[in-house]
Amino acid sequence: MARITLKDLAHSYSPNPQAPSDWQLKPTLNHAWVDGAAYALLGPSGCGKSTLLNIISGLLRPSQGRILFGDTDVTDLPTAARDIAQVFQFPVVYDTMTVYDNLAFPLRNKGAEEAYVDTRVRSIAGMIGMSDVLNRKARGLTADAKQKISLGRGMVRENVNAILFDEPLTVIDPHMKWELRTQLKALHEEFGHTMIYVTHDQTEALTFADHVVVMSEGEVVQIGTPEELFERPAHTFVGYFIGSPGMNLLPASIDGAMATVEGTQVPLAARYPGGQGMEIGVRPEFTRLVEGDAGLPVEITRVEDVGRHKIIRTRFHDREINVLAPEGAPVPEAARRVVFDPARVNVYRDGWRVAGEGQP
């Protein structure tokens, strides 16, 4: 296991990058990832998360900056010398080998004793639900089954610096995804490997990781626990990307403990500095539809019943404001205003969260 440190990291696939858009990882990333923690790299396609993972694994050398495992600079070391395991998006298995031999391969390649190999292979096979097919050849197995073998191969070694997963559950059926995420979490808790898991699926990231690394357009915009990402998004992208629906965002002018949105005042729980490019953000969970004169005047456009709750879609000028209401709760016919819980309102300047007086 290892602490992973990124120092002044950046990468471009262009030999002579000039514009910001030429950088897949924009200058510069400086982060230290704790030894033994489980991280998820989360973001939309093309944001740079797989590029970053491949730099950490040694499949790609960064255009600038260094990678350290512990105190060792591994920037110029090949993948084999970094003592990691990596599981790719699409299954990589040896078709002519049995499932057993596929799982055993990484251990045998390191010279492990056969008794240990057998114990470890059978343990991992049970974890991925393949104990009954250990003697079958991989050829002819479904893509789902082959990806489980690939996952098992990544997890079979106990003494590695890190285990890296690049969207490993893409070809797994939804029910098995949940089971495998649970097993990966259990494996992490048992053995304490440093794990980095790339995904564009927020559910996968939030249920798997201790810390989620949110990326957008080649930048890390926030590293935090699932609770921190939900409660205090450091950037408006995080507020929008995390949650379903995402955070409501409204341009506002700020004066101390009061925001003004299109002429309507919205109370805040702390005092904030004013300035240009200000917005307020509040999650639909902390937004209520009410009768009377308080709050922002809205038009209800539709109501979606999704089982656990209702999503009430409303329109305020040219902006949509979403409200979450408990399942079974009636939507008052005269309710034409939305109000926010002041303690749950975040304030942003130029996309980045601003801390109010006395706030973290």
From TrEMBL:
The keyword Translocase does not apply. One of its GO terms (molecular function) is ABC-type ferric iron transporter activity. Residues 4-242 form the ABC transporter domain. The keyword Protein biosynthesis does not apply. It comes from the Bacteria. Gene3D superfamilies: 2.40.50.100, Nucleic acid-binding proteins, P-loop containing nucleotide triphosphate hydrolases. SUPFAM superfamilies: MOP-like, P-loop containing nucleoside triphosphate hydrolases. This is ABC transporter ATP-binding protein. Keywords: ATP-binding, Cell membrane, Membrane, Nucleotide-binding, Plasmid, Transport. InterPro entries: AAA+_ATPase, ABC_transporter-like_ATP-bd, ABC_transpr_FbpC, ABC_transpr_MalK/UgpC-like, Mo/tungstate-bd_C_term_dom, NA-bd_OB-fold, P-loop_NTPase. One of its GO terms (cellular component) is ATP-binding cassette (ABC) transporter complex, substrate-binding subunit-containing.
